[in-house]
């Protein structure tokens, strides 16, 4: 990537204050690591959380764009509000009075509040999209908290898939010895 790219990270949240805090801290760290190639704007849409998530974002992450909805719009509705706020053409029943950022974004990452961004994931994602202009959407590699691979793409889930997700192969055979 030769020119700086603008990336918007959208996080839609409902009643997950602690997860959201960790998510946003990880995005901030990833944005700092990418600062030489990316300008990153973060938009949080809080879906009327009763757990003070919006207040936490406002207090601890004042530079993040917070849209505190008075209704629970759901995941899709919250993303649509943020996309519209960014100036992208989407259809939504809720009007946002806050003006969009000055510069338009080149790429958008929809991130769940229970996810954390690690390493140079933001740069890798944008580089993949820049290097493959015929690709419009990409997904992230997923890992469990212990760093092992987590499946993230399947056919329509069946009972066997749910069992594999709850009891991943190989995880039960790992043993830790204490001397």
Number of strands: 6
Q: Treating each run of at least 4 consecutive H or I residues as one helix, how many helices?
A: 5
Q: What structural category arises from helix and sheet content?
A: alpha/beta
CATH homologous superfamily classification: Spore Coat Polysaccharide Biosynthesis Protein SpsA, Chain A
Beta fraction: 15-25%
CATH topology: Spore Coat Polysaccharide Biosynthesis Protein SpsA, Chain A
Question: What CATH architecture do you see?
Answer: Alpha-Beta Complex
Q: What sequence of helices (H) and strands (E) makes up the elements?
A: EHEHEHEHEEH
Flag low-confidence runs: 172-179
Task: Explain the overall architecture.
With 179 residues, the chain is α/β, with parallel strands linked by helices. It has one domain: Spore Coat Polysaccharide Biosynthesis Protein SpsA, Chain A (Alpha-Beta Complex), CATH 3.90.550.10. 31% of the residues lie in helices and 18% in strands. The strands form two sheets. The protein has a four-stranded parallel sheet with strand order 3-2-1-4, sandwiched between helices. The protein has a two-stranded antiparallel ribbon with strand order 5-6. The termini are far apart. The relative contact order is 0.17.
What are the main properties of this structure?
Spore Coat Polysaccharide Biosynthesis Protein SpsA, Chain A, 5 helices, 4-stranded parallel β-sheet, globular, single chain, alpha/beta, 179 residues
